[in-house]
Amino acid sequence: MNKNEVNDFLCQFDFSPLEELDPSLNQGYCTRYRKEVPFEIRVEESNNIPPEIGSMENITVKLFVLGEELNAIRVKMELTCESDLFFHFTQTVDQRTFENMQNKQKLMIDFSEYLQVLIKMFNSCIREPKSYLAVFTLKLNGKAQLDFIKNMEYKFIELLTCEFIQSSEDAIRENIMYRYTVVKSKNAIMSKRLRDVSLLIKSKNPSLLLQLQKTASRQMELAMGKNSNKIMFNSKWV
C-alpha cells in the first residue's frame, strides 16, 4: 500500500478528535490549510555569501487563523518535516507586522487577503513545481526565510517573502508528542482493520492470505531499504 492509498484509507475514519488536540490550536486558532509542499531547502553558510542551490524536501505547511477568516486578528504559518521531527518554524502575522511586510516588499494586497494569497502560492507550488518555487533558507541566527519565486524561463520573479523564527524547544516538544500520538492512533486503526481483513480471507481462502503476507513482507523490505538511504536534515536546528 503506497502513501496515497494509505491516505485514502484513513479518510474513511474520523480523526477530528485527534486534530483538536493539536497544540498549534492553543489560544483559539483554527486550521485553514494543511498540505505537503515541495520546498528547496538552502543553508546559509556566511552572511556575505548567498546560499547555493539546496535540496528538495516535502514540507508540511499548516495555516491557522485567529478570529474570522475574512477579518483575522492573526494568521499563523507553521512548517514541519516528516524526515526531521525537530524541523519546526513559525511565522505569526497581524495587521501591524503585515504593514511592515507591505511597505518593505511593496505588496499590493491587504492583510485580509494574506491567508488566501498564501494558499494560492502553496497550491501553485504543488501543481506547477517548475514554474512556482518555494525556497526556504535557514540562516545562521536560527531564523529562516521563505521566498515564493516564479520561473518565467528568461528570469525569476520574487512574488513574496516570509520571515520565520525557529519554534521554541517547548513548542517543538509538544508538536513531536502530538504527532507521535496521531501516528500511534492511526497505526492502531490500521492494525485492527488488517486483522479483521486477514481473518476474513483466512476463513475463505487461506492460500491467498499466505500469498498476500509474502508480498507484503517483500514490499516492507524494499521500503526499509529506501528509507535507510534517505538523507535526513541535520538536527542542529533544534
From TrEMBL:
Record field: transmembrane: none
Domain of life where this protein originates: Eukaryota
InterPro entries recorded: SAS-6_N, SAS-6_N_sf
Domain Spindle assembly abnormal protein 6 N-terminal: 33-164
Pfam families in UniProt: SAS-6_N
Protein's recorded name: Spindle assembly abnormal protein 6 N-terminal domain-containing protein
Record organism: Plasmodium ovale (malaria parasite P. ovale)
Gene: PowCR01_140019000
